[in-house]
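Hi again,

Forgot to attach this to my earlier email, sorry! This is the prediction with copper (II) ion bound. I've pasted everything inline since the attachment limit keeps bouncing my files.
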Amino acid sequence: MTRVSHLRIGCLLLLATGLCSSLAAQAARITVTDAATGEPLTEAVVEVDTEGAPKPAPSSEEVYQRNAAFHPHVSVVSAGSRVSFPNRDNTRHHVYSFSPTGVFDLNLFQQDTPPPVLFDTPGIAVLGCNIHDQMQAFIVVSEAATFAMTDEYGQVNLTDLPPGEHRLRVWHPRLEETHQQWWESPQPLGETDVRSVSLSLSVPAKTAAEPSALQQRFNHALSQ
Ligand SMILES: [Cu+2]
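Structure tokens for the complex follow:
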């Protein structure tokens, strides 16, 4: 191989590395942890307020019931989205929300799914079931241009933030009892920030979602 071709390969390698690092840098990464334990927090919703950026189109989502639990436990949707509530249990559920962002009340029989509910007001809808006290779920209705929910490692990667600094806020179901408050970052977020957020949770973790023995007998009686 000649000296010239060695040089050429070197330049190509440099170009490739430069390109790779600039692509990798175009993402902000946020890790959310529990301040008391340091454990990563899944199901934290991260909102970034990017003024002027287009907002995501409304979508159609589903929160189904199986084994007397809601799935998913936390959803985040853009304002104007519709959510349906299919019952995949053999028993009845009576799903409601009294939250200002979405007040509704649905009596759910198997295979009989009512029309989806429209969520056009930003905020958090806390869902419950009149029959099963332990059933709880949350729908975060967002008007932000960018939102995401943390994965099992407590992380979100925001790959399409515009340049500049943006307001950052984080919500988690265990932040406080009304489930309506957000943690606001004192520092704005840049498009390449790698940020750790540690939340002080005041609501204890719900233990087993297993229905009580009495509840199980009741469910069994209902399914007969
Ligand atoms: Cu129920």
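The radius of gyration is 22 Å. Residues 1-25 have pLDDT under 50 and may be disordered.

That should be everything now.

G.
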